[in-house]
Amino acid sequence: AEQAYGYAIRVATQRGGHEFDDQCVTVQYNLARLYEARGEYDQAGQKYKAILEVRPSYPDCFLRLAACEAAKGKRAEAIGWAQKELTMHPKRPDAWCALGNLYLEAGDYKHAESAFKSLLSTAEEEGPKGPVPCKRDAYAQATLAWIQIMQAYAPCPPAAPLVQACGLASGQERVDKACETLRKVLVDEPNNLYAANGIGVVCVAKGRLTEAREIFTSVREASGECVCP
User: Fold this and answer.
1) Model's pTM, two decimal places?
2) Cα–Cα distance between 203 and 178 in angstroms, integer?
3) What are the pLDDT digits (tens) for 68-82?
4) Beta bridge partners of 124
5) Half-sphere exposure in the Cβ direction for 211 (13 Å, CA)
6) Backbone φ and ψ of 6, nearest 5°
7) 99: which DSSP letter?
8) Within the chain, how many helices (H) and strands (E) appear?
9) Staple 165 to which of 137, 140, 153, 199, CB 3.0 to 4.6 Å?
């Protein structure tokens, strides 16, 4: 595949009369994706950066660079690339999701929450009649609920049962807020397994284990691989 991409790049360059015509950029991007899929993140990064030198707003390059840096364990650099994508495309939901998830992986709940809230308040996606606001984005809402649950559990001792998350008034409030958010998601999308699974986690936190078991059983039957976001 790499040899085929290399040949395609040479043909596109010769025909275009300059280093990067449109077809050549596409082929370079596909080659970068191949490197990335093979775990050759430095080579992939070099390709993505080369594309950005001639196409500064080429779709996905900043986010792919963020993914490469994250895969190398360089989370700060990954966050930086995601932020650069948002300077180019501030209403792109994928970019807000990527940034929020990077903060979430770092345990930075404050900034993760801010990113997903920004998705709901500012992001847009293309619809059949033009841009559509992402105010009710199910993934963002479900993830915000999960963040509330993790913040409720954060003050608990290591390895403490989840039910202790509701031991403090602040924890109880966060769990209740998460439950409310997840229920709103299920009103819009009754078959959303992530939201249903989240309700099960809420039940565990509240000590309602029988209800939680029934929910988890239903989720498992619907999808054996479903986990909370």
Assistant:
1) 0.85
2) 11
3) 999 999 999 999 999
4) 133
5) 12
6) -60, -40
7) H
8) 11, 2
9) 153
